[in-house]
Design goal:
231 residues, alpha/beta, 3-stranded parallel β-sheet, globular, tRNA binding, Ribosomal_uL1/biogenesis
Amino acid sequence: MAKIGKRLKAAYEGVDVLKHYGVAEAVKLVKDGAKAKFDETIEIAVNLGVDPRHADQMVRGVVGLPHGTGKTMRVAVFARDAKAEEATAAGADLVGAEDLMEKIQNGEMNFDRVIATPDMMAVVGRLGKVLGPRGLMPNPKLGTVTPNVTDAVKAAKAGEVQFRVEKAGIVHAGIGKASFSEEQIAENVKAFVEAINKAKPTGAKGTYLKGVAISSTMGAGVKLDIAALVG
């Protein structure tokens, strides 16, 4: 049996691993346990009753958190002419067309979100093997293929979170920082779970939300009371 390190053992002090906590109490435990020397990320894991191998059970979407993520998002935009100027004015970090494509092909990947105007998808499509595996490929369903680059850039910069269920039926995301207030974290938790609930696919059978837990980067996982969370 693997030994539990001192740090992890200390992190779990005061946490009942069998208990499902209300949001406020869970957030307090996680925030109090975030004692690293850096501003830890508050993470959420949602266990869903879906099999993402089936198209009608895929869970994917985007949510604008009330208080953002606390992370500085670097945004790349594929656009030309007036739309390129619009993206720059909105705060995009990288803007271009074929020149931006070449930079990415040469390994320059210093961005967290890619946005494209519809007319640029022929160019962006050539980067599918590079952007796709990293979850960076622009998608109209996520609002990242759009003629309205100003709103898309501002939403990304404000802390919009994209989510996608993994093979095991789990959705992971960073939803804030330990430096946030308890109220801010709690509101972000509720907003994220609400978005997951709304994204329930047509093919989902039985219990959809099977489990929800939050933690800090170096801290213990705390289970949430789903009934109280979505009730």
